[in-house]
Hints:
The chain is mostly helical. Helices cover 75% and strands 2% of the residues. Strand 1 (40-41) and strand 2 (45-46) form a beta hairpin. The model has no long low-confidence stretch (mean pLDDT 89).
Amino acid sequence: xxxxxxxxxxxxxxxxxxxxxxxxxxxxxxxxxxxxxxxxxxxxxxxxxxxxxxxxxxxxxxxxxxxxxxxxxxxxxxxxxxxxxxxxxxxxxxxxxxxxxxxxxxxxxxxxxxxxxxxxxxxxxxxxxxxxxxxxxxxxxxxxxxxxxxxxxxxxxxxxxxxxxxxxxxxxxxxxxxxxxxxxxxxxxxxxxxxxxxxxxxxxxxxxxxxxxxxxxxxxxxxxxxxxxxxxxxxxxxxxxxxxxxxxxxxxxxxxxxxx
Length: 260
């Protein structure tokens, strides 16, 4: 596994676009968190309150998820470059099996998603300790980081699948961006209930806006049953994991049979 990661790193270390996009993400996320935290719309929303422990875990992952489109585009560029520059084929010529070539790309997705989740932990701790008057219940909602990892991996695997299907960076990016930005189209096409199970909507809803999350928690069980626009977080997470597995399996099948 380490050997495969070293091979992938050798491709990326001199790829300036990769580092530039990561730096943009690393800078924009905390700036967006800080900017939204300055917003006060009493009594509806107080930005600084959302950064207190344990709310900060939900808020930081929600804001970070907005920038997942940028990271998804980065995945598209990484994968399509392997087709454009024939590095998939070169890796096989150099002695890797087709299975190892596919596994190396999957590893990149997992590692990148893990790094992004780790960064969200650092940001949540940083802002949480700054904005919390009393440092209590620090890790009560830490599970949002795990959910964010699943969400990020979901976006990555979808971007990966689009990339190997189309092999064209511009077309793949456009389709991915349209799906990411215009998720509401599925609501118009399928209805509010069915659209919740569309992959992009499932992934997006994993990290809800904090106010929306609080309102849902306040609903009584009988009211929740009538509120058919929301599926429960455990079900949504399970569906997201299912989609990730499906995307990975489809990607493996396509790459196993396609001429690299």
